[in-house]
Design goal:
The complex is a heterodimer of chains A (312) and B (278).
Chain A (H helix, E strand, L loop, with lengths): L8 H8 L12 H30 L2 E2 L11 E2 L3 H7 L2 H33 L4 H16 L2 H12 L5 H6 L6 H4 L1 H25 L4 H9 L4 H12 L1 H16 L4 H5 L10 H10 L5 H30 L1
Antiparallel strand pairs in A: 1-2
Chain B lengths: L5 H32 L18 H7 L2 H34 L5 H14 L2 H14 L6 H25 L4 H8 L4 H29 L3 H6 L8 H10 L6 H26 L10
Classes of the chains: A mainly alpha (312), B mainly alpha (278).
């Protein structure tokens, strides 16, 4: 060996090894590295990339598993899309989805999560722990369990809520299905906003708040002039992520099943019922799936552009 | 505002905060009460009260083979997906971290973008149809493959971050002393990235354990249903539910998620977030 054993290994390696990629320290080489990455990439290509691309094509077909087109799907061009725009069930589902996302995520989870994080700054330790545990539990428990918990809470005859309010006989999920799933989703998802804003608020320098307070700023003035400008990025990140998730949320199905009379049928539930239930109109359903994909793409691109822009 | 005495205003705002916190606490606690109380109740019903403590309900659960089977199915789906994701993500992330393959960074970002766009709800139609045409519907391993495909981009991303943070000097020293690539991988790299693999594995376990939609649309034989789908069939079928079974089952099914979350949260804090929901 040219270098004495006492010299630093980094330099020794540079002397000993043949010229190759400077970072390839284990000596894999490009081909073996490609073979290492291939299985993961193949699985992603088959089960993630291909379905997304195939949706484009399927949306152009008249294809259902139940009827006469099961064996030979017909190419119908853009008819599925023009039918979709005049389908009152679709426009209703779209409207309900916007209500659901707007009130439960953009407003509900965002504001409640921020208020909790803001309160935690000065709250006594034991209160913070209790509220934290409850909010986190609502978030991490499996979806079908929490859906049943809400069924039990809202049950018409024996539900805990009716007992507390002395309103036995009120069928909440039938009389007010949209309000139920909106409040449910605030309960379910506030934890993420709370955690994110807690982390964000810890980055606000306390000296800035101190200066504001000494200058006579009220709490809400401190909030508006000191805190919000500092955590603006976090607010946007949080809003985009919870919008994306809520937009694709299938849990309302577990609580109201989209009913009664499609009154709480958001887009994911509508797609499921159109494409996979009953007549199984796969082509028609794919047209709506494509719309969901495009909406997701728009949100994700805004998010990424924004992240890149703020790094500069 | 200026007309109010500052002491009065401070008292009022403090009362307002207390009331708000109490309301929020009740709001978050109320639905959870049922899960905590009913499994131990003598006469379980929709009502979340404790009328006499007993463990009879658990006895009924232990003698119900269908429910144990569903938990075994959940273990199979979650465990299978976690192992597949860990192995493939470890191989890919190590290679992508240490060897400069052309277009690597663009590839990683494209994958991450895709995995957040192509959610289970957006892709359920093409995935269902693809498995239908391949004759893979109602096969549990197909569910494992679909779920792994969805989780892998985020897993590779997380693990590559982890591998990037490990100094290269360990591998370089081994190299200097004449270790072959496979020896370096087995004896140096594997022990080093094991904590990262554990995190990704737990993350995948939790994601699959709670996933309802994918097994719900891809499996049709009740014997293959995981706990998430069985939980739903409980109240979907109509009639008076068997509260003794549902409540204990819900609790047994939920506990692993809470335990795993506590472990990861204690070790790694907030980094547990990220990836696909729904």
């Amino acid at each position: 060996m040219a270098a004495p054993p006492t010299s630093r290994p980094v330099e020794a390696a540079a002397v000993v090894t043949r010229p190759r990629e400077d970072s390839d320290v284990a000596g894999l080489g490009r081909w073996r590295a490609g073979a290492f990455a291939a299985p993961a990439l193949v699985l992603v290509a088959i089960f993630l990339v291909f379905p997304a691309l195939w949706t484009l094509y399927l949306g152009l077909l008249d294809y259902s598993l139940g009827g006469t087109t099961a064996q030979s799907p017909q190419y119908v061009g853009l008819r599925n899309f023009s039918d979709a725009l005049s389908d009152p069930l679709f426009t209703k589902a779209l409207y309900l989805t916007l209500l659901y996302v707007g009130f439960s995520a953009v407003l509900g989870q965002n504001i409640l999560g921020f208020l909790l994080a803001w309160y935690f700054r000065t709250a006594p330790g034991w209160v913070r722990v209790i509220v934290n545990v409850l909010v986190l539990l609502a978030w991490i428990l499996p979806g079908s369990v929490v859906a049943f918990l809400w069924q039990a809470l809202l049950d018409r005859n024996n539900g805990t809520l009716n007992e507390i309010l002395h309103t036995t006989g009120t069928a909440w999920t039938i009389d007010h299905p949209m309000i139920v799933i909106i409040i449910f989703n605030i309960w379910r998802g506030t934890a993420f906003s709370m955690l994110l804003y807690s982390a964000a608020l810890s980055t606000v320098p306390s000296s800035h708040l101190e200066v504001a307070r000494l200058a006579g700023a009220r709490p809400w003035q401190q909030l508006r002039d000191v805190v919000l400008p500092t955590i603006r990025r976090h607010v946007l990140t949080n809003t985009l992520l919870i919008t994306l998730w809520t937009f694709n949320d299938f849990t309302p199905f577990l609580i109201t099943g989209g009913g009664p009379d499609n009154e709480s049928q958001t887009l994911p539930v509508f797609i499921y019922k159109t494409a996979l239930l009953g007549k199984q109109q796969l082509g028609y359903g794919s047209a709506f799936s494509l719309l969901l994909l495009v909406a997701n793409l728009i949100i994700a691109v805004i998010y990424i552009r924004f992240l890149r822009g703020s790094k500069r | 505002m200026s007309g109010i005495d500052p002491v009065v205003r401070q008292t009022l705002s403090r009362i307002g905060v207390y009331v708000g916190v109490c309301v929020a606490t009740v709001f978050f606690a109320l639905p959870l009460l049922w899960l905590v109380l009913t499994p131990f109740s003598k006469h379980p019903s929709y009502r979340a009260t404790l009328n006499g403590v007993s463990l009879d309900n658990f006895d009924k659960l232990f003698h119900n083979p269908q429910l144990w089977r569903s938990l075994r199915n959940s273990i199979y789906l979650a465990g299978g997906t976690a192992i597949l994701v860990i192995v493939l993500a470890a191989l890919a992330s190590y290679a992508l971290s240490r060897v400069r393959i052309p277009g690597r960074d663009q590839l990683l970002y494209a994958l991450l973008l895709l995995s957040s766009i192509v959610t289970g709800t957006a892709a359920m139609v093409p995935i269902f149809l693809m498995l239908y045409q391949l004759n893979l519907l109602d096969k549990q391993f197909a569910v494992v493959l679909v779920l792994s495909g969805g989780l892998l981009p985020a897993a590779v991303f997380m693990l590559k971050d982890f591998v990037d943070s490990i100094p290269r000097s360990y591998e370089e020293s081994a190299r200097v002393f004449g270790a072959s690539p496979s020896q370096i991988l087995r004896h140096i790299v594997l022990p080093l990235i094991r904590p990262g693999m554990a995190t990704v594995g737990v993350w995948a376990l939790v994601q699959v354990w709670g996933n309802f939609l994918i097994p719900f649309i891809l499996l049709s034989d009740e014997k293959k249903y995981p706990a998430a789908v069985v939980m739903y069939t409980f109240y979907d079928t109509g009639g008076q539910p068997n509260f003794a079974l549902i409540s204990t089952f819900a609790l047994v099914y939920s506990v692993p998620v809470v335990v795993l979350y506590l472990i990861v949260n204690k070790r790694y804090g907030f980094s547990f977030q990220g990836g696909i929901k729904g």
